[in-house]
Every structure is written in structure tokens, then in C-alpha cells.
């Protein structure tokens, strides 16, 4: 078990795009509610099964396990809720931290989110110029929520 | 992914008890419904995370992964539905197959079930003398159901 502490932002412009090579992600949820999510992910050719507990501010417990890629693909294709989340993830090192920029596709096309993982909720973070509005506390931007209410269906897109 | 094919029976008497040494199991469910279960199990000192698809007769898809015992204990203690399933499992070889006899405790005290895993749904099975009524098709005896409606609360115990 790990504790995940994460801040999340919208992204401005395209300057981030040249800073990393993207990896295709496909993920879905066996279960997602306020208290618990069980996620299946294919990140490139690697499968993962991840359990996350309830969110407490920007922190939550996380249990993650690598699983065979064939299993992940079958779980996504047969048992996960629809629609799946499709995105390309860019990992961008910046002043000692790694920013993960997710460019969504499919039902969430048009959405680009940057996340940074912290070791402490109070940690000071230097923001790259392409970082926009913070959305850490807006549950609509949780990936589990984007699977239930995709960005393409929002009436008030930021 | 594997296909699990299993027949399940009530147990008569105590003759099975001397045939194996039991291992303590503690398990719970992150999710259980008609289509899907996500189970956490401690079997002795080993942790497992298991995903099972919908039941089709006596068959269902199963994905099982070993996980660290500390993770399994924490998932059971913090995220699984209540009550947990507590039982002692006895693995008894018999005429080329292995029977698993589960003697339940806690909220399911008094219940003893024997399961045998098959490679084919049509496979002929020789039944030991201590095997009673078949309950393969009775959903009350699913462990996930025993977590929701424990045996101690049944009005019509067999």
C-alpha cells in the first residue's frame, strides 16, 4: 500500500508537447464509487490492477499490482464499465518533480490534464508556464468520473 | 485468465476431518454482484486478489493474483464489505481430484461445504462417502452471498 498525494491542473497551450514522448493508456473500472475504485489499466504493453480508497483532500490510499497484459486486455474488454478511458500520457520532468500530462481521446477528446505526485500534501510546487487552473478538488476530473460522465458531454467545459 | 468449473456439496459427518490439515482463510469482497466479484483473501500467510466474472452454470472466468500479505490484511481491514468470511480449508485428495472442504466460522459458523474443481463441466466425479446434497446451483452458498447473508441468519438451514 502507498499513499497517493496528487495535485491536478488544466493545461494551457502546446509547449509541453515537445518535452516528452507519449505512451498510450487504456483503462477502465471494475468498480468506482466515493469510497473505492478498482481500476484496470494498459500502459503501453504493461497491465496493472489498482485499488484506491476514499479521497481525503488530495490524498488517498493506493494498492497497485502489475498483471499480465493479456489479462488486462480481457478485463477491459469484458468486465470493465463503459466507456473506457483512452489517453496518451506524457511524463515531463520539471524542477525535481515529474508532471504527467494526459491528453484524452475517445469520449473525453479535447481534455488535457496535468498531474504531479507529491510526497507531502503541504509540499511547495513550482508550476511550469503551461499549467493552468487547478482542479485537484473538482471530482468531475477524476478519471473514474470521466468514465461515467465524459468531457464531451459536459455543458460547462473549462 | 482461467475458467473456473466447480461443483459444490454439503458435507455429512466428520470422516473428512482426519484426511487433511486445515489452513485458516479470511476473505472479503471489494465488490460482489451478479456480474462480477472482486475478492481479497488471506490463505494462511499468503494474500490473493481475485476477480471473477458472471457464473454460467458451474463455470465462470477467474483472474487471480498473489499480493503482499500486508496489503491483503489492510484491504480486508479497511476496504472490504462486512462481515468478512472466516473459514478453515482442508484440501483432500480423492481418486485423482482434490476436494476442498470449507468449515466456516464467525457469522457462518455451522456451515461445512465441499468443492471440487473440474476441467470440464461434463466430467464424471466419484463422490466420497461424506459428500451430501449438491448445492452447485444454489446462489446462497456462494461465498460472496455468505458475506451478505450469513448462514447464522438463514431461516431454512439445510
Automatic annotation (TrEMBL), chains A, B:
Active site annotation, chain numbering: 29
InterPro entries: CYTH-like_dom_sf, CYTH_domain, NeuTTM/CthTTM-like
Occurrences of domain CYTH (ranges): 2-148
Protein name: CYTH domain-containing protein
Organism: Thermocoleostomius sinensis A174
Source lineage: Bacteria, Bacillati, Cyanobacteriota, Cyanophyceae, Oculatellales
Amino acid at each position: 500500500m502507498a499513499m497517493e498525494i496528487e495535485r491536478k491542473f488544466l493545461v494551457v497551450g502546446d509547449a509541453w508537447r515537445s518535452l516528452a514522448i507519449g505512451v498510450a493508456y487504456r483503462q477502465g473500472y471494475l468498480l468506482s464509487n466515493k469510497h473505492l475504485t478498482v481500476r484496470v489499466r494498459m500502459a503501453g504493453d504493461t497491465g496493472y490492477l489498482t485499488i484506491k480508497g476514499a479521497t481525503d483532500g488530495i490524498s488517498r490510499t493506493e494498492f497497485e499490482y502489475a498483471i499480465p497484459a493479456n489479462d488486462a486486455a480481457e478485463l477491459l474488454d469484458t468486465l470493465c464499465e463503459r466507456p473506457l478511458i483512452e489517453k496518451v500520457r506524457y511524463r515531463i520532468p520539471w524542477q525535481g518533480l515529474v508532471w504527467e500530462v494526459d491528453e484524452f481521446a475517445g469520449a473525453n477528446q479535447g481534455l488535457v490534464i496535468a498531474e504531479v505526485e507529491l510526497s507531502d500534501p503541504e509540499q511547495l510546487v513550482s508550476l511550469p508556464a503551461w499549467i493552468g487552473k487547478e482542479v485537484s478538488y473538482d471530482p468531475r476530473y477524476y478519471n473514474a468520473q470521466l468514465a461515467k460522465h465524459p468531457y464531451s458531454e459536459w455543458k460547462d467545459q473549462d
